[in-house]
Design goal:
By secondary structure, this protein is α/β, with parallel strands linked by helices. Helices cover 31% and strands 21% of the residues. Helix 8 (192-198) packs parallel to helix 9.
Length: 311
């Protein structure tokens, strides 16, 4: 039986002039998108620095921004640099699972708390940062993501979360209640495919017991969403979850079909479930923290943090 999901240590919020590192620990990014993302960050009076392999390629494995060792070194160097206050994912893609075991968690723990922002493939790192560093992390848009650099809503919500997190404590759903009720717990989650694939690996959480699960995905057909949820159910990973807040399911087929699968697989847990909270792979994606105690009110369709995501 897994232990209850525990509240995690909150890093400090950012202040004007803070240095942030942009790292591609998964896939590569076109230079023009990196530059556009840097312009957004500079417009917030941040001082962004770019890790060496953000624009790299790993030979024939061109879906990676560099070798596993190079990507791990980029992330670790940025995290352990005392002048860096936050590490921002440049993009998702694939590759975090290949490099997460190469990180020196002792050195990263000694570097002290700071902010990690990323989504999608970064789910692997969100889990590892929770289990190895005990830190709150932010599941938010990638700094060079096409949706982020072109969408004011996603930019503004991330900016608010980073600089004035007390103003971003409540997120309202634009969808409907799938299972009614009210639940409390510590937030965790991310991309469904990564959570399912991570089950049983060294740095992953061993379950969602006592937690509020935030779940989304992209480009997965309904039967594959079914398969991954079934994996989480059969493995016992969802045992004891207190409630589920759903994000976006872009390119997963007709949303009605996806909703049918979500209800079929999740309603039997007997906990509140609410759809369309606007985080994940969607236009203007919002930023949600993992590791903060919160309340899911399925009647009001709101997710409210007990305290700001950052100190």
């Amino acid at each position: 039986m897994s232990e209850h999901v525990q509240e995690l240590r909150r890093p400090s919020r950012l202040a004007p002039g803070a240095r942030v590192a942009v790292v591609a620990a998964s896939g590569p990014v076109p230079e023009e998108r990196v530059q556009a993302g840097l312009d957004v960050l500079r417009g917030w009076d941040l001082d962004p620095v770019v890790a060496p392999h953000v624009l790299g390629r790993h030979g024939e494995l061109d879906y990676l921004s560099g070798t596993d060792a190079d990507r791990a070194a980029d992330l670790q160097r940025a995290w352990c640099d005392p002048s860096v206050d936050a590490v921002l994912y440049a993009r998702g893609g694939y590759g975090a699972q290949r490099m997460v075991d190469l990180l020196d968690w002792g050195a990263m723990r000694a570097a002290g708390p700071k902010v990690l922002v990323g989504f999608s493939d970064a789910t692997t790192l969100h889990q590892a940062f929770a289990t190895r560093l005990g830190l709150v992390t932010l599941y938010g848009p990638a700094a060079a993501g096409i949706d982020f650099i072109k969408n004011a809503r996603g930019q503004e919500h991330l900016r608010t979360t980073l600089f004035a997190p007390e103003q971003a404590r409540t997120i309202a759903s634009t969808g409907a209640t799938l299972v009614p009720g009210r639940a409390r717990g510590v937030t965790l989650g991310g991309c469904l495919a990564l959570l399912a694939t991570d089950v049983g690996t060294p740095h992953a959480r061993d379950g969602a017991r006592g937690g509020l699960l935030l779940l989304e995905d992209v480009g997965e057909r309904p039967y594959r969403v079914d398969r991954m949820l079934t994996q989480l159910l059969r493995s016992g990973w969802l045992d004891g979850v207190t409630g589920i807040a759903l994000g976006s399911w872009e390119e997963c087929g007709p949303y009605g079909a996806v909703r049918t699968v979500l209800v079929d697989r999740l309603a039997g847990l007997g906990v509140p479930v609410v759809e369309e909270f606007g985080f994940g792979h969607c236009e203007g994606a919002l930023t949600v923290p993992f590791g903060v105690r919160a309340e899911l009110d399925a009647d009001a369709c709101t997710l409210t943090l007990d305290q700001p995501a950052l100190r």
